[in-house]
Design a protein that fits this description.
Elements (H helix, E strand, L loop, with lengths): L6 E6 L6 H14 L4 E6 L5 H5 L14 H8 L19 H5 L1 E3 L2 E5 L13 H16 L3 E6 L8 H4 L5 E5 L3 H16 L5 E8 L2 H11 L4 E6 L2 H8 L4 H4 L1 H16 L8
């Protein structure tokens, strides 16, 4: 395993573009490239576990639902707003205790915090924020974070550790518009290392469309639309088992990231 270098990749994009499929393929590509890989499911609507190959009867509870652990570490019960609690609870020992491993990939689930009208300043929010900071700032491995359609889990304290932020798009105006919105939000927190992976590409005209619409966003690669991946998803099979071609494309992207030392302006 390559334990000397670490890389922290956050993956986002409009719902339905295949973000979780791309995340799982990227995890496998890093494993095959000799990296120790920690996958982080930070999208409550996704199921990275199934895409990695976990059977549906394996329970991997989200961090934000571990009420006893949150109370132990923060000093307050989850859901308690306005009470005193630790804003920076101890979490550095938790990844090894909480992850499940499959196909050489270690998986953590973050979960989400239900926000009221003014947001949430609560123990589970503090736990989530501190864990994300720990994973991105201090883990010496490849950390692949499958996020919501945005950058809600990131902040100024962790943005510079993300290298790169990858936005998954598909041929279509809406997913490209989402990518541009994410790019603008990322600039606000000084996250400038952003690129695109195009998914569900059917033709050269799709490639031409995405290349034109991407504008200043570098494109790391194009993944073809494959019925095999859809069939594999129905059978809860990892995408690399049913479509080796897709994995080879992601291995090329990993090599590109490593060779350029994640400086996307060099692409």
């Amino acid at each position: 395993m390559n334990m000397e270098k670490s890389i922290k990749v956050a993956i986002t994009g409009k719902g339905g573009v295949g973000k979780t499929t791309v995340s799982s393929l990227l995890c496998k590509a890093f494993v095959d490239s000799g990296y120790s890989v920690l996958a982080v499911d930070a999208d409550p609507d996704a199921n990275l576990a199934t895409a990695i190959g976990f059977s549906e009867d394996i329970e991997i509870p989200p961090l934000t639902e571990m009420k006893q652990l949150i109370e132990e570490r923060t000093g307050a019960q989850p859901g308690s707003v306005g009470s005193f609690f630790k804003l920076n609870p101890k979490v550095d020992d938790l990844p090894e205790k909480l992850w499940k491993e499959k196909n050489g990939i270690k998986l953590l689930r973050m979960g989400t915090v239900k926000k009221g009208g003014g947001g949430c300043i609560c123990p589970e929010s503090a736990m989530l924020k501190t864990m994300v900071q720990n994973l991105l700032l201090f883990r010496k491995e490849a950390v692949i974070m499958d996020m919501e359609a945005g950058i809600e889990h990131l902040g100024r304290a962790t943005a510079q550790a993300v290298n790169p932020l990858i936005v998954v798009v598909e041929p279509g105006k809406r997913s490209i518009e989402t990518a541009r919105q994410i790019q603008n939000l990322a600039k606000d927190i000084k996250l400038n290392n952003i690129a695109i992976i195009a998914n569900k590409v059917r033709s050269q005209s799709d490639i031409d469309f995405i290349t034109k619409e991407a504008g200043s966003l570098p494109i790391l690669g194009f993944l073809p639309f494959k019925d095999d991946i859809l069939k594999g998803d129905m059978e809860s099979l990892p995408p690399w088992e049913v479509c080796p071609e897709a994995l080879n494309i992601l291995k090329g992207i990993v090599k590109k990231l490593v060779d350029t030392e994640n400086n996307l302006t060099a692409l």
